[in-house]
Amino acid sequence: MSTIRLTELSIMWHRSSLVLREQAMAECGYKDPMPYWDWTRDATPEKFRKSELFDSKKGFGGDGSGETDWVDGLCVEEGPYARLEVNYPEPHCLTRRFNISEPVVSNWTKSVVNKIMQYDNYLEFWNNTELHPHDNFHRAIGGDLRRQYSPNEPLFFLHHAQIDRLWTIWQGRNETRLHDYAGNTVQNATVDTASLNDQLLTLGFAPTRGVDDFMDTLSNGLCYTYDDADDEWKYDDDDAN
User: Fold this and answer.
1) Greatest C-alpha distance within the chain
2) Is the pLDDT of residue 172 over 80?
3) For the chain, N or C: smaller number of CB within 10 Å?
4) What is the pLDDT of residues 191-213, one digit of tens each?
């Protein structure tokens, strides 16, 4: 993860990981599509805290509250993942440490996302998506989700499914945007080296595939879309949140 984030490969790698995750869940008997969390509906501290996603019975449980000596979080003690032991980078309980403040939560309001969706090129779209909703959601949950091993946190996949949804909507069926990919492939570099021929490494979990294989969700065996991907699309005002 530490070599993927802060590069243009990030959004592509996460799309490929969502596909692999959904395939793995199907092998375990899960028959529904990958859910996403439209966090624009929970874009105030009060609404975020009260989100049904944190319900202990029908959601993912809430903030960490147990004792732990693990880095940057407290053990989750309620819900389906209570005392869940995750194995990377070494065995420990799943941790969270909420930072649900206005400066953090305001990064995924409807108005912020609408502005991001108005960018007409991939580089600006992704850089602003990463800077605002993507990174700050990780900060808001804290714990494992804030570290390089953030996929330990089940909410990781709902968060990145929403990011993927927004990218899919931004792409539309526009042939230019379906092949629009640019930027750096090395952290902190400013040189535009990204290419559709770049390879997405999977460390043996799946065959290595090229970036171009993941540009279009309806091609190359991906075969999925989102229910509002083809709409004339814009979030309502935040007042309607």
Assistant:
1) 52
2) yes
3) N
4) 667 899 999 888 888 899 999 99
Q: Where are the beta strands (DSSP E) in the chain?
A: 64-66, 74-76, 85-86, 92-93, 95-96, 199-200, 209-210
Q: Which two tokens stand for residue 132?
A: 């605002």
Please compute the mean of the pLDDT values over residues 93-110 and round it to a whole number: 96
Query: Closest by alpha carbon to 68, among 48, 86, 47, 49?
Result: 86
Question: Which overall architecture, per CATH, does domain 9-228 show?
Answer: Orthogonal Bundle (1.10)
Q: Exposure string (b/e) for 126-165, b if CB count within 10 Å is 16 or more?
A: bebbbebbbbbbbbbbbbbbbbebbbbbbbbbbbbbbbbb
Sketch the domain layout of the chain as residue ranges: 9-228
Question: pLDDT at position 2, please?
Answer: 41
- If phi > 0 it is left, if psi is from -120 to 50 it is alpha, else beta; for residue 172 that is left
Taking the C-alpha atoms of residue 6 and residue 188, their distance in angstroms, rounded to an integer, is 7
